[in-house]
Amino acid sequence: MKKKSIGRRILEGNFLYTVIAIVIGFLIGAVFLEIAHISPAVAYGKLASSIFGKPKYWFYTLTYAEPIILTGLSVAFSFRTGIFNIGAEGQYVVGALTATVLGIMLDVPAAIHIPICLLGAAAAGFLWSYIVGLMKVKRGIHEVISFIMFNWLAFYLSNYVVNLKVIHKEGGGEASKDILPSASILFPQSVRTATGCTAFNWGIVLAIGLAILLWVIIERTTLGYRLKAVGFNRSAAKAAGINADRSVLQALGISGAMAGLGGAVQILGMGGRLAQYATQEGFGFEGITVALIGASSPIGCIISGIFYGAMKYGGSKLTMVKAPAEIVDIIMGCVIIVIGISQVFKRLFLGLASKKRAAA
Q1: Which residues face 201 on adjacent strands?
Q2: Is residue 3 over pLDDT 60?
Q3: Burial (Cβ within 10 Å: 0-12, 13-18, ≥19) of residue 195
Q4: Is the separation of the CB atoms in 72 and 294 below 8 Å?
Q5: I need a surface site. Which of 74, 96, 220, 303 has the fewest CB within 10 A?
Q6: Cβ-count burial 275-299 (b if 16+ within 10 Å, e if not)
Q7: Given phi > 0 = left and psi -120 to 50 = alpha, else beta, which region is 242?
Q8: What confidence tens digit (pLDDT) does each residue in 116-155 have?
Q9: Please, which residues have CB within 8 angstroms of residue 276's CB and are 6 or more apart in sequence?
Q10: Per residue in 208-217, pLDDT tens?
């Protein structure tokens, strides 16, 4: 069998089409900026300088990326196993809520406090997703419907708990008390001073480490093989003796744990407290974007998560040139739309390549 050429491998892969999607997203964003009578060159110049202008901006980008990488891993892992986890938002919220409560209520040394908060958040996300899995395999209830319902249950549960007297901060508005210093995952002050990022924390190490771990699980273990087999063809997997229902539960549980950790990292590393939600936070839905841009690859989620984190951090500075920060959402939305129809580009380019070879 002849080896495929480099060009053929590029055309059959996902990277080229992701780059095309990003370019198209920026072009469409430029059109909207022109409509608003704002120079795309000025707006994009500010976006770029806000990301690459100073070394401290790079560390802020990594910090912004932490929870998005984790929710992206959550969605990507379920995608690889044939499940659409649109419930990462709810799992993120219960993870953030659990980390907040444990961070406030427990008064133990940091070496014990931080692992308890992280494990508690992972367990909360695991359980929140696992229940949906049980509803799917036991009663045949479609997971998308259940996840949407559970997102709102998590939303209102969080707001209820935040306003409990034991959790609510007196005179602090609609927010919880601050977590105890022993629950914080911030880097030492010397590191934060050196980087210039006051919120720089261990969450980025956790996110990258878990991405590598999930890659190993998916690509190098029998568990990953079983989960992928169920995702590719559930009937064939059953015929091969794989317990498809158990695989679905395992996939959803692990997926939920990742999103729950995303919520914990946001609270323990950046927020320090949990505010009452006026609307959905959006980290879970941003995870869907990260998973799609990263082609549902754990390693791809690191890169796409950092890209999204850069866009969020840089986009927050656009108001300085009177450009709406929402332009970032327009760009990312267009990127996802183009990725969604990338098969059209793939077939077109592969067809052109085949005609070129035939003519040669």
Answers
A1: 186
A2: no
A3: middle
A4: yes
A5: 220
A6: bebeebbebbbbbbbbbbbbbbbbb
A7: beta
A8: 999 999 999 999 999 999 999 999 898 999 999 999 999 9
A9: 158, 159, 162, 163, 174, 175
A10: 999 999 999 9
